[in-house]
Amino acid sequence: MTTTSFDPQRSVASLTLGELEAFVRQTIQNTETSQRNSLIPPETNLDSSFDQSAQPFWQIVTESVAEVPDEVWETLPEDASEQIDHYLYHS
Question: Cβ atoms within 10 A of the Cβ of 22, count?
Answer without folding.
Answer: 15
